[in-house]
Structure formats: C-alpha cells, structure tokens
Known about the structure:
Layout: E1 14-18, E2 24-28, H1 29-33, E3 37-43, H2 49-61, H3 63-68, E4 73-78, H4 82-89, E5 98-102, H5 107-112, E6 115-117, E7 125-127, E8 130-135, E9 138-144, H6 155-161
Parallel strand pairs: 3-4, 4-5
Antiparallel strand pairs: 1-2, 3-8, 6-7, 8-9
Amino acid sequence: xAPIAVGxxxxxxxxxxxxxxxxxxxxxxxxxxxxxxxILVGVAGAFTPTCSLRxxxxxxxxxxxxxxxGVDEIVCLSVNDPFVMKAWAKTFPENxxxxxxxxxxxxxxxxxxLELDLNEKGLGTRSRRFALLVDDLNVKAANVESAGEFTVSxxxxxxxxx
Length: 162
C-alpha cells in the first residue's frame, strides 16, 4: 500500500488511551480530526531513544506555538498497547497538550501505509517516524522519515508548514 500523502484524506481507525479517570477508552481518528487542524506524530516505539529524547519532546516544547498557529490537537501514536503509552506519557510531566494514543495491533499504522517491519530485530511491526499535518481530515503535510532517520518530522518542520 502506498504511504499516505499530501492531498489524501486520512483513513478512519480506532486508537486507545487511558483517560484522566484511568479508564481505558477508544477513539476514532475521524472524531479527533474532523473539522480540526491536527498533527499526527508517529513514532517507532514508546521509550525508544530518538522518540523519547528528541521527537516527542519537540512537540511538547512547541505545543503552545503550534496551537497559536491554529493547531487544535497534537496526537502521538505508536504501535504499543495503551498501558505502555500511559506509562510513557507519565515520563513527560511538563506535557499539557500532546495526547498519547495506542495503535496496539498496528491496524491504523497499516491503513496509513506507514508500517515498518522490524521483525528481524525482534520488534515486530512498528510505525515509521512521521508527522502529518491534517486539516479537516485532509493531509496538508506528510513528513515521513526514512528508517532510522530524524530529519523532517520534528515540531520545527511542521511549524515551517503552518
């Protein structure tokens, strides 16, 4: 399947998370993004070095600036279960705006065409590193990294497109 690209409508899908009352919830991507400007940040895995030290912190640090430019939601998604995503989110106590959502079976990542086969490394199917700027379900920017790279999908790269 071809990866999601500028001009495409994002597919719908279901992601999971724990709410403020620690209850497991599911949410449809279209309900999050319809009529809104949303950044979808895809990471290879929770607690991985680049994702934890550079990729996600950039969006947390720049969240206010992104919101001042019209971004309604910033969503971090990973092929991890919601328990892992909840634990990972807690490692960013300064976070006020980035939502951590789980794509446990990689179904949504596959629908985006952004899966990464890491079976040889014992990691199964993961997500490529990416940042999508979506406006009312339409992809306006699709910054997708090559395997192992972090050069085009950071918060500053999305800010340049706004």
